[in-house]
Here is the input.
Amino acid sequence: MGEKKYFCEYDDNVTVSMLAGRILNDPDLPQITSIIVGMWDEEMWDQDPSVILQMIIDNKEKFQHVQSLFIGDVDSDELEISWIKQGNYEELLRALPNLKSLKIQGSEDLVLGSIDHENLTELEICCGGLPVSVVGDLKNARLPSLESLVLYLGVESYGGDCSASDLKGLAKKDLFPNLKTLGFLDSEQQDDMVRVILESDILPQLETIDVSCGCLTNRGGQLILDAVDRLGNLKKLDMHYHYMSSRMVDKLKALPFEVDVSDEQEADDYGMWPMITE
Here is the structure.
C-alpha cells in the first residue's frame, strides 16, 4: 500500500482521539510506510495533534516500519496555515528511530525539542511564521543523515521572528554534514536568506537551493550571479514566486543548472509579500 492519508471533514463528528484510533486500528497499518495526517478534528483551530503524536509514541512497536510522516496536510479551504496548532515532536522522533522523512505544517506551539536521530534524511516545516525557538532546537540537533532541510520562514505577524543571523547559525556543515538540499524560503527578507546560504560553509556540498516564495528582488538575483563560480555542485535553484525584473530573470535562466524563476510578482500599494503568510 505504501502511503495513506487520515483525515476528517466538517460535519463528520470526528475528534482527534477518534482519528488516532482509526490510525492505530487500521488493518492496513502494517503495510503503510508513509502516513499523512490531514484535518484531525472538526474544531482543529482549537485542537493540536498531540493525541495522535502520543498514540504513536505509546504504540511505537506498531510504527517501526513507517518511514515518512506528514502532520498537518490541510489546505486553506479547510483551515488557514497560521491557525494550525502543532505539538512537541521530541518524544515522537525518539520513538521512531527508522523514520526518514518528517514534514510538519503549521507552527503555533511547535516544539522540536532535543533531537538526536540517526536516520532522518528529510525535514520540512511549512508555516506562515517560523518561531526562532524552532531554529534554536535545530541548532542543537544531531541529525547526521539529514540530506534535505526546508524551512518556510513567513512573517512576524504570524509568529515568524527569525532573522538572517539566526539562520546563519543553522547553515553549517558541522551540523548537517550530509545536507544536499537547503531551503530558507517564504521570507520578507529573502535577499538576506540568499546571502546566508551563499556565505555558509555548507554551500559546496549543496545540490539544490530553495529561496522561493518570498520577497526576492534583483539584489538577491545578483548575489547568485556573483557567486556562480562557487556553485559548481549545484543542480537546481528554486526561485519561483519572486519580485525580480524580467531582465534579471533572463540572466538567471542562462546559468548552467536548472533554475525555476516562474511566477513573477509585482509589488502592490502595500509593498511585497511572501506567498504563504496567514
Observations:
- Residues 14 and 139 are 38 Å apart (CA to CA).
- The chain has a mean pLDDT of 95.
